[in-house]
């Protein structure tokens, strides 16, 4: 199966030197063995016909490619099974026995022998071939900052349609440029109504995605996966660990309480959060004029939100971006090619964006058209385009749909979308009905955890992918922090051992004062001076370890962000609340859409084993024979 999938994407790889090397590899007589002759024949057949193939989206057969229908059968929507991982087999290829027999190949004898041995040999050959072709294996792709990471197993072959958000998904903005201008317009609007903004400047390092605004206290907090606050900032000043404990030690961040908590779901939240935290400082120091009325932190948040909303509604910001898109958009030449692969593999591609028609058309032309082959335009990639979608309501309820019928954006009502159409509004249910594709046959890709990922999954049961560009920077920061984190783990482990001995001696001392024997005979026989001296020594060691560990913990993650640490972690050991949201709602996540180009449209993404608190003990025990395990268990008990 690896071999067939590896060749499903050859229209992207056309390097002659690699092609010749792979051809020689495939034709080498040393590689031909009775158990793999049929697979090698398929390889040669695909290779001889496939390198110049430019597949058509309307058929699985092209003028110069392999006739898939004559070689394989495709599992249909009506005849699919559910595999052992719970994924549908719809879209899987199956070998046609009659085709093998036409080439004189005995399908029963082709892969004789234990499957473990057959699979081992074929997997080794597949890895060799992928290496010769310069194509990364699925395992090596996962070890890359541009890997696609899987939270819930996803079979792309069973996906019939892929929908995309546009902003920060199909198009990545320069955050400093885009959010910086949004911040500027927000501050101008605040100044017009009397807020003191002089001397303030946009600081993109002040916040990161995944933080939560506490509108009651004027704080920005970073909770862990359980909702416990690990770091906090009031205004633009970080709070001490003690202040965080006193303020949030008895409460959890609950995102369902929208009147208090505001989750920074997307990079679009950066400008608003920076402006709000800076204005909290101005409110605290009394420089906000009294004539603006009695303002608390919650009222201040509303004022900042109105100022930023006005910047978007008045259109000045988007007009500026449309006039000079090269200043705001980071181009990605690989992205249109990734979508082209998906389209040619038979996927229906959808663009579903909240942006209006004129902005969408201008920005997509700039980002896509120059990278597409054969004079294709961006509209040629998508079966259905929906602008002004009003997400998240698009997934939650039904709104009227209008067809955009002219280049000026004139519209007329309609009730069903057609292939190639451009529409405004509507709903996810209308899309499903128009395509006759439903639920988990659709994958939706977006950058906003709530608007894109959470709501499409909760209300429509669509499969989901989250785009988080910061993953690349975090991956790099984690790599460069390995030495620091390893040293920190060693110190923490040392303190745990020293601390355990101290606690045992403390218990022995406690029992001695009550006239009871210690835990063991040796501990009971310790004299009082020896016991006290040992405890004092251990206590000093632990105190010195704390002095060393504390600043190292504070510094952990500063390569990503000096204030907040890593995006995906809260504290040294645990996941951040953001990471919990990603795992809960995103089946897969990655840094950019073009990362799909490093896989194939037929990829089977498998989730990793999830570790549990007791896994290390289970693994430790499994390394011993039965008697040793029993002895270890007896000791622990």
Name the features.
5-stranded antiparallel β-sheet, alpha/beta, disordered C terminus, 637 residues, 10-stranded mixed β-sheet, disordered N terminus, 24 helices, Rossmann fold
Any overview of this molecule?
- Keywords: Hydrolase, Magnesium, Metal-binding.
- It is a single chain.
- The protein is an alpha/beta fold and 637 residues long.
- It contains 24 helices and 23 strands.
- The strands form six sheets. The chain has a ten-stranded mixed β-sheet with strand order 3-22-19-18-5-13-14-17-15-16, with helices on both faces. A five-stranded antiparallel β-sheet has the order 10-9-8-7-11.
- Helix 10 (269-284) packs across helix 11 (297-313).
- 34% of the residues are buried.
Structure described in brief:
By secondary structure, the protein is α/β, with parallel strands linked by helices. It is 44% helix and 12% strand.
Sheet with the most strands: spatial strand order: 3-22-19-18-5-13-14-17-15-16
Overall morphology: flat
Mean pLDDT: 84
Structural class, by secondary structure, is alpha/beta
CA gyration radius, whole angstroms: 30 Å
What share of the residues does DSSP label as strand, in percent? 5-15%
Helix content: 40-55%
Give the helix tally. 24
- The span between the termini is 48 Å
Number of strands: 23
Low-confidence stretches: 1-63, 623-637
Largest sheet: 10 strands, mixed
Organism: Prunus avium (Cherry)
Keywords: Hydrolase, Magnesium, Metal-binding
GO molecular function: 5'-nucleotidase activity; metal ion binding
Protein name: 5'-nucleotidase domain-containing protein 4-like
